[in-house]
Design goal:
- The protein is α+β, with helices and mostly antiparallel strands.
- The chain contains 13 helices and 14 strands.
- The protein folds into 3 domains: 98 residues, no CATH class; 44 residues, no CATH class; 205 residues, no CATH class.
- α2 runs antiparallel to α3 and α3 runs antiparallel to α4.
- The N terminus is likely disordered.
Length: 410
């Protein structure tokens, strides 16, 4: 009897230990990565370089448009009257000339307001508007506050310009950019601005651009990007972390980058969530080459044009020379969406757009050593930590993370 009780007790203990270990492993696998997602101290915050959105521009006052219309009609009437009048012809022509001058001032002011592309343009327009006589104060309320910020305008603008030139001299291009953008068309500010654009960022630098959920709260935080390549004023960026977890394709069957649901998600939901209207205007619709799998020959599909995409196997080979450099941690938000996070290192799988061994697979970067079955060759392939696994995994896999890439034009 005692032996039966002892056996039952031993079975229960083994079962309890097994379930405890399974639960512990599950908890560890789902735990947020230990990697901090706070921005690096030396990350360049591009939000300070982004132009103010044009939606905040004061509209052309209705009274100004009315005065333009009335001045135009008055000018035509004075010219007609001068043609038919004998004794007052000279006087009427002089009056028509004065009205024409005022009409020119009003038209120039309207153009400046409509074409303003910086805060400074609005301020100068406000100052000029207040200087035009006979314009009622009621129509310039939106501009009065802006005009008051100009102060001693020319002196102030020259001081800002001199600071920008000095910043260029000491290669402080970010502060120089901010100053020159504020100056608008003052002196040769626009020419200097174009000259220093390519110097703003360098390859390997980390920058902040856009916002996305990184932690488990609803709050969005700045996205960190690594500059992979520079081409004039254009820079290729890839996110420093795995930002989300989305299948390459949600439907069963064959697919490629051109037709996959991951491409639709990046160009749709992610694009709309991560970038403001002004930030969207800085993203280049880049030509994306989709080559065949170099080992299996699986077609990559047609070339595409995308503002947001994931890297290809050739691009990863070009920009990440070592296995260690390819390892990437997921954000806590990405883990909560299902991204695999390796227990010891915290690294994640992340998709590449290159097809795998078959049309329903896609290449990925491995976070650790492992193996995968090659269904096409009916054999098991091994891979090492940081490898680009060309066999690929099923495109509907739900544990592979997304590391977006963009071409940014400064």
């Amino acid at each position: 009897m005692l032996s039966i009780i002892f056996i039952c007790l031993a079975v229960w203990l083994v079962s309890f230990a097994s379930s405890y270990r399974t639960g512990l492993e599950k908890t560890q696998a789902q735990a947020p990565p230990r990697t901090k997602v706070r921005p690096l101290k030396n990350a360049v915050d591009l939000s300070g370089l982004v132009p103010a959105a044009s939606s905040g521009r004061p509209p052309v006052p209705a009274e100004l448009e009315k005065m333009l219309s009335e001045a135009g009609r008055t000018h035509k009437l004075l010219l007609l009257a001068a043609e038919v009048s004998e004794g007052n012809r000279a006087f009427l022509r002089r009056e028509a000339g004065e009205v024409k001058k005022r009409l020119g001032s009003l038209s120039a002011l309207e153009r400046r307001i409509k074409e303003a592309d910086s805060e400074l343009d609005i301020k100068i327009a406000a100052r000029d508007m207040l200087a035009i006589k006979e314009i009622p104060e009621s129509i310039s309320e939106a501009f009065t506050a802006a005009a008051g910020q100009v102060g001693e305008s020319e002196t102030r603008l020259d001081a800002v310009y001199n600071d920008a030139v000095a910043a260029i001299g000491r290669q402080d291009f970010q502060n120089a950019y901010r100053s020159l953008f504020f100056l608008g068309g003052h002196k040769d500010s626009r020419e200097l601005l174009e000259r220093i654009r390519p110097e703003l960022l360098s390859e390997g630098q980390t920058v902040l651009f856009g916002n996305y959920r990184l932690l488990l709260s609803e709050k969005k935080d700045p996205i960190e990007w690594v500059v992979l390549k520079k081409k004039g004023s254009d820079c290729l960026l890839v996110s420093r972390f795995v930002l989300d977890c989305v299948p390459y394709e949600t439907r069963m069957g064959s697919t490629d980058w051109e037709h996959c649901s991951l491409r639709k998600w990046l160009g749709g939901a992610f694009y709309e969530s991560a970038f403001s209207d002004t930030e969207k205007s800085m993203l280049v619709s880049a030509e994306i080459k989709n080559a065949v799998n170099p080992v299996y020959g699986t077609p990559g599909g047609g070339d595409t044009r995308d503002k947001v995409f994931v890297l290809s196997f050739p691009e990863v080979q070009e920009f990440f020379k070592t296995n260690a450099s390819r390892l990437c941690s997921p954000t806590p938000f990405a883990v909560s969406k299902g991204a695999f996070s390796q227990q010891k290192s915290g690294y994640a799988y992340w998709w590449l757009r290159t097809p795998g061994s078959g049309p329903g697979t896609a290449v990925f970067v491995a976070p650790g050593d492992g193996h995968i079955r090659d269904g096409r060759q009916n054999r098991v392939e091994g891979f090492r930590r940081g490898d680009c696994v060309l066999t690929g995994q099923s495109a509907d896999a739900e544990n592979c993370g997304v590391r977006p890439a963009v071409w940014l034009r400064l």
